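Quick illustration, no need to memorize.
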Amino acid sequence: MSCYFPFLSISSTHWALIAMCAILIGMSKTGVPGVSMVVVPVMAMIFGGKASTGVLLPILITADIFAVIYYHRHASWNPLLKALPWAMAGLIFALWIGAWINDHQFKHLIAASVLLSLALMVWNDSKNKKIDLPDYTWFAALFGILGGFATMIGNVAGPVFAIYLLALHLPKKNYIGTTAWFFAIINMTKLPLQYFVWDNIHQETLLIDLAVVPFVLLGAFIGIKLVHIIADQYYRLLVIIITLISALLILI
């Protein structure tokens, strides 16, 4: 059955929350990772779980486009191309397994994977002789599949992909540029799947998305300014801390 959102019946409180979510999404796409984790539960509260992903996806794509335009020269294509085919497989897997796994089980699976991966990365960083994890095919495959699965089911792939890129020790702008291209490609791929398979993107959802575009751009502007303020040596630590918090928030 098609979802329908009465555009004019959304309360002012909910509009304020949607605008806040749009700002956080803009910030997260332009260099302040993880701040948008609160968006998923807030939008689910307003519209419902599956329906909220239909509202969120065009907002995410709008922010992705802005981030790609601004950071397109800074992408590291080798690790990106390693992970993308596996991420596409994760998307397809999510379409199938969505009928077999509930939200509670999914959240615990993703959170546990992120926390274990984060622990592995920190342990690897602490060793005198480090293992170059990204050189292993299984590493790109694992995080590609898990990231594709996470983004299709609940738009929570940020912490998953963050682990993959943190292991590469990329400079700040390369980290942001690679993330921007990855999610732009993935989210554009999700668009026809959600439109035709899940049937949760409609004229009413697009009107809501259009109304909050200025807030997405405001968030993107704030994110860019903050990135310039944060020194490179502290950026990796910031991403690790926010990724850890994000993984814990998934469990709530």
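Residues 8-250 form one domain.
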